[in-house]
Design goal:
Blueprint lengths: L2 E7 L8 H9 L9 E6 L2 E6 L13 E2 L5 E9 L2 H10 L9 H12 L9 E9 L4 E6 L8 E5 L2 E5 L2 H6 L9 H10 L13 E2 L4 E5 L5 E5 L16 H19 L6 E4 L4 H13 L5 E7 L7 H11 L2 E7 L1 H15 L8 H13 L4 E3 L4 H5 L3 H13 L21 H4 L2 H8 L10 H10 L8 H6 L2 H10 L10 H28 L4 E3 L5 H9 L13 H8 L4 H4 L11 H4 L6 H6 L2 H7 L4 H13 L7 H36 L3 E7 L7
Parallel strand pairs: 2-18, 13-14, 13-16, 14-15, 16-17
Antiparallel strand pairs: 1-3, 1-9, 2-3, 4-5, 5-6, 6-7, 7-11, 8-9, 8-10, 11-12
Helix pairs in contact: 2-3, 6-7, 6-19, 6-20, 7-8, 7-20, 9-10, 9-26, 10-18, 12-18
């Protein structure tokens, strides 16, 4: 994967200069440490930072078609590029590289906008049509890779990360108060935005065409249908497992395509273990696997990771994550992630990707996506229990089913308590709410907003996030089963904007590592959408089809193992006697007042409590509030104080790096 950036000038505006493009791409050089490329004409400036995965020798971008009328700067991988290339060559197209990037150019040349739906991959595309003076910004089906844009007068700037927009000097970094409040409710902003004022995100499965007059035309090129395929209504569990295994093998086979070695993450859970086992069936050469261990036993899964690695036969590497490691990594995580966090979970994954890099591997497979598409999270069980309870709200027996969910949250006795039941009873009868399953969680996390400054809290608009997500719900969504509706909400409102971003792309690309997701392959997802609910979840038994696949590949300790959410120490790692100096600095009265984003008195009181108790808080939402405030302060310092100095340092590094393409056609493509 790579980093992309560029500036499109309006019909009467001056094109971006080469130095501006260099400043932009230098900010995201971590995404592509193998060299830089540039293209300029009278309207567009394109920049690219390359991470070499496919077509190592000749794949430097921007890349063009035969007539040099189409130019692309692209971040990602097209896994079916071999098949697409074969078809395009049969249609008369001639290629000058062996890259998947050039396949996109010729596919667009042949099929126009219909090309996007033909791409099996993870991608963020910026494609310039020099004849029509049109720019296309396109993102993959599930938003695995980022792509941002912003208007500045008669120019539109775009890039893989917002810091590149700021580094160019055309876009000023300012926070959007309403979107900050969204993070303190939903863990992320809605998929179409960012925490920065005026900086938008290309939504997943969307192509935006910017015409010659800088007007934006947005269209979705794909949406799921999770109503279930009537032809599969009678499928047995074994048949569903057979089909799922077949599709996963195909997805992994495609994702093993690379001109560099491909490793695999092993968390100790079901999903990554299945991917590792299937990958070994396809690749019997030496394969490296990677896992995170925790010094705190409450979070550690070392025995399960090593059991899987030994069973499937990988050369396993792991890293022991301590409180000090989380402290050291968190500032880098925030710089790269460009958003406050209400969890520390991305920090160990940042350390894991660094281990991958230091081991000489550039690409890894991950099990992300299985819980969403195959109903593995407890939220799906919560929804089922609460809907069942809602039919008899006064039942004393039905709420007892709650004791069977969240095995790691509390002891059985606590989960039978009236307090536990009262929590889940809130809004229980409002089953027509389109976000019924998620509402109770969002309301609980929104408690953290009380630490935001009054003007930030006043800008909060709980409806805005709902409306944004609702506006992009697929056709027919209301006719889906409750399980399918909850699954898609989890995908659209959590997996895409948070998991694939803060715990995926950002922490991996910070160390120039590409993560590939077989469970997010289009063929796998279309199958999962078509399968009946009963082979995904029956009663409160989850991921039935996947567990049946796992039973053929893995030890019983793994395929019978209940879902264990990935978590990391939070305030116990950051507060108290072991607190790093930056915590007291960022939460000092001077720093809190400097940025004006939080309620200084409320933060000071809660932070003092955390220091007194060595970070042991009464509840998780207090922990989330403190982590959110701390990381918001970090981000404010990054973009409001430190960005100019960082930009200067990174720009100097670019001058010492190889520049493989520099084409300028200022006369032949002058502004119309």
């Amino acid at each position: 994967m790579c980093g992309v950036a560029g500036v499109l000038a309006g019909p009467r505006a001056e094109p971006a200069g080469l130095d501006e493009l260099k400043r932009m791409i230098a900010m995201i050089g971590h995404r592509g440490p193998d060299g830089y490329g540039f293209y300029r004409d009278g309207r567009i400036g394109l920049a690219h930072a390359r991470l070499s995965i496919v077509g190592l020798a000749g794949g430097f971008q921007p890349i063009h078609n035969e007539e040099r009328t189409l130019w692309i700067t692209f971040n990602g991988e097209i896994f079916n590029h071999v098949e697409l290339r074969r078809d395009l060559e049969a249609r008369g197209h001639r290629f000058y590289t062996r890259t998947d990037t050039e396949v996109i150019v010729h596919a667009f040349e042949e099929y126009g906008p219909a090309a996007w739906a033909k791409l099996n991959g993870q991608f963020a595309i910026s494609l310039w049509d020099a004849v029509k003076r049109e720019l296309w910004l396109v993102r993959d089906r599930l938003g695995i890779l980022p792509l941002f844009y912003a208007r500045s007068g008669d120019h539109l700037a775009f890039a893989s990360e917002a810091k590149a927009l700021f580094g160019g000097g055309r876009i000023e970094p300012r926070f959007d108060a309403a979107r900050l409040a969204q993070v303190f409710t939903h863990w992320s902003v809605a998929p179409q935005g960012s925490v920065f004022a005026g900086v938008q995100s290309v939504p997943p499965a969307t192509a935006i065409r910017i015409d010659a007059d800088l007007r934006l035309h947005e269209a979705r090129y794909w949406e799921p249908d999770m109503a279930g395929d009537p032809a599969l209504s009678g499928i047995t569990l074994d048949e569903a497992a057979d089909r799922l295994e077949e599709k996963l093998l195909d997805a992994i086979r495609l994702r093993l395509r690379a001109d560099v070695p491909v490793g695999v993450y092993i968390s100790g859970g079901l999903d990554s273990s299945v991917i590792a086992a299937l990958a070994r069936k396809l690749d019997t050469t030496q394969m490296h696997s990677f896992g995170v261990r925790f010094a705190d036993n409450a979070f550690d899964e070392t025995p399960q990771q090593r059991l899987v690695a030994g069973h499937v036969g990988t050369e396993h590497h792991d890293i022991l994550c301590t409180a000090e490691d989380i402290q050291a990594a968190l500032p880098d995580v925030i710089w790269h992630g460009e958003s406050p966090l209400v969890r520390t979970a991305p920090a160990p994954l940042f350390l894991l990707s660094r281990l991958v890099r230091d081991s000489g591997i550039r690409v890894v497979l991950s099990g992300e996506g299985a819980d969403e598409w195959l109903a593995g999270y407890d939220i799906f069980k919560e929804d089922k229990v609460r809907r069942f309870w809602a039919r008899q709200p006064h039942s004393a027996a039905r709420p007892k089913l709650l004791s069977r969910i969240h095995p790691y949250a509390a002891t059985s006795g606590q989960k039978d308590s009236p307090l536990w039941q009262a929590f889940w009873k809130r809004g229980m009868t409002e089953t027509d709410d389109p976000f019924y399953a998620h509402r109770i969680r969002w309301q609980n996390t929104a408690w953290t907003q009380r630490l935001l400054a009054p003007d930030v809290r006043s800008a909060a608009n709980a409806q805005a996030f709902d409306e944004t997500v609702a506006a992009h719900l697929p056709a027919g969504w209301s006719r889906w089963s409750p399980l399918a509706r909850t699954q898609w909400t989890e995908i659209a409102a959590f997996m895409s904007p948070y998991l694939l971003t803060s715990q995926g792309d950002r922490v991996a690309m910070a160390n120039s590592i590409e993560v590939r997701y077989p469970f997010l392959d289009p063929e796998v997802d279309d199958l999962c959408a078509a399968l009946p609910d009963r082979v995904k979840m029956l009663g409160l038994r989850d991921k039935l089809a996947l567990r049946r696949v796992a039973s053929r590949l893995l030890p019983a300790e793994i395929f019978h193992r209940p879902k264990r959410p990935y978590r990391a120490p939070m305030t116990t790692a950051l507060f108290g006697a072991q607190a790093p100096a930056y915590v007291r600095d960022l939460l000092s009265e001077e720093s809190l007042n400097r940025y004006g984003l939080v309620d200084a008195a409320g933060v000071a009181a809660l932070a003092a409590k955390a220091h007194r108790t060595d970070g042991r808080m009464a509840g998780e939402r207090e922990e989330m509030a403190l982590v959110g405030v701390l990381t918001l302060q970090m981000l404010a310092r990054n973009v409001l104080d430190e960005l100019p100095g960082r930009a200067s340092t990174l720009r100097a590094r670019l001058d010492a790096a190889p520049i493989h393409i520099l084409e300028e056609h200022l006369d032949s493509a002058a502004a119309a």
